[in-house]
Design a protein that fits this description.
The chain is α+β, with helices and mostly antiparallel strands. The chain contains one helix and six strands; from the N terminus they run E-E-E-E-E-E-H. It has one domain: predicted glycosyltransferase like domains (Thrombin, subunit H, Beta Barrel). The protein is globular and about 30 Å long.
Length: 99
């Protein structure tokens, strides 16, 4: 399945000690598929290879692992495949926030 091009605001949630959500970093979800996504993040911020992604307007946090990072472009894989229905919900939400 090809990734869907988007421009959806999101947050990278960093997990602290005892699994407490400690810090978040704003990002833009540039594309998304069932398997992963491409994020745009400030190139000056560093964060660990494993984190949670929160998409604006959706309460669920998605477990992620960095595949590659080049400047501000971060390619991530989801730790579990997204359900097709969830992906369609994200895309509808993204369409509403950009129009």
């Amino acid at each position: 399945m090809q990734p869907y091009q988007t421009h959806i605001p999101g947050r990278i949630i960093l997990v602290g000690h005892h699994l407490s959500a400690k810090t978040h970093i704003r990002c833009i979800v540039k594309s998304i598929s069932l398997y992963g996504a491409v994020l745009e993040v400030s190139p000056y911020l560093s964060f660990p290879n494993n984190f949670f992604l929160e998409i604006l307007g959706i309460r669920d946090e998605i477990g992620c692992t960095i595949i590659t990072r080049e400047e501000e472009i971060v390619t991530i894989g989801f730790n579990m495949l997204l359900a097709q229905e969830f992906l369609m919900h994200v895309l509808r939400l993204g369409h509403e926030t950009t129009h």
